[in-house]
Design goal:
- The complex is a heterodimer.
- By secondary structure, chain A is mainly α.
- Chain A contains 12 helices and 2 strands; from the N terminus they run αααααααααββααα.
- In chain A, strands 1-2 form a two-stranded antiparallel ribbon.
- The longest helix of chain A has 26 residues.
- Chain A is globular, with a radius of gyration of 24 Å.
- The model of chain A has no long low-confidence stretch (mean pLDDT 92).
- By secondary structure, chain B is mainly α.
- Chain B contains 5 helices and 2 strands.
- The longest helix of chain B has 23 residues.
- Chain B is elongated.
- Classes of the chains: A mainly alpha, B mainly alpha.
- The interface between A and B is medium-sized, with 29 and 28 residues.
Amino acid sequence: MRLLKHKLALTIALGLVLISGGGAFVYLGVYNVSALEQHTLPVYRLLQYAMRRAVAVRNDAVVPPLDELDWQGRGLRLYEAHCEQCHGNPGVAPASFSLGMVPAPTAIQAIGRDRSPGDIYWVIKHGIKMTGMPAWDYRFGEADIWQVVAYIHHMPTLTVDDYRQLRERAHASTPLPLAHDTTTALPEDRAEQILLGRVALQQYNCISCHKIPGVTAGSNHVGPPLGGITTRAFIAGVLPYSEANLVRWIRFPQDVDPATTMPNLGVTQVHAQAMVAYLQSIDKNGD
Amino acid sequence: MCVAATKRRQVFSGWLMCSAVLLLSACSEPAPDVEIDGNVEQGRALLTSAGCGSCHEIPGVTGAQGRVGPPLDQLVRRGYLAGILPNTPDNLVRWIADPQAIAPGSAMPDTGVTRTEAIDMAAYLYTLD
């Protein structure tokens, strides 16, 4: 009995030490977040491994025949327009803003060689938290993501000369602007609309200015809080509330009020409608 | 034996509180400091008498449940007023005193408060964090 008591006391004491140690570690800012100071090797390896495992267990996409996609045209152009700034191309440096990021965006040839198409597809679609890799799901349709995957998958065998020739041909055959294949239509199911809207509010960075109930990181106060907005008489003090008006405000705030600091974020019609659905849902439950 | 037990309990609860504070300090960011020389109580009374509650939800002001304009809770943390003016004491006073001059056509009407009254009202509003 005495021994058990001692063991229990020891376990509790150990637990308490760990908790307070953890608290001190956080409060004292022990781990430096400066991008000038590299991770220790064990931490770096752990993070990389954890990331790859998290992707691997969720990766269940069926890979289409990549050779049949227009990777030399549309794939190349999409990659050049949206990915090259961080990941570069043969003989082409990434944009200066992306240099020195931690973690650094992997050179695209290494990605094409080392990662499976399914993994590449998942990472493009979902992005990766705590890195500079955004999610592209809300900006590209499935077909376009696979075009980019096809490009990445094929490009490791290109020399600089090969790449330059391909690029010239692609520029001649596939001009910009490219129509993004955002085949997303507003889901019929209300619950799906609400989920689409909730993620859209985060994907368009609404959370960086607005406090939004139910959206993590939606606790900023640049603009007014969005809780209750669908129950208020006016939007932004100028537009009488209606669903259509809220969609209009979300999509084109500067058209409604040229003086507003709210910028035009390029929200699509479908995504704006979904956002309204989400905001309505929290107002029904909340107040 | 009893004295030692009490001491241990005190040390333990002290430590527990410290750890809790350490961990919880991650949870709430303090509101920004604002300097404004107005009468907070007078401001609260004015917010009632000027009818602000008919359009705005305002904590601490009886009956202020309006949903025409945005809620005024945590106003001190807000970056912009009416989406146009950076949130500074001067700007908030200006806005309260003469919204139509700043945003013509806004649903917020001129309430006829004087500048001094607007300062008091702003002082109260800045206590809402």
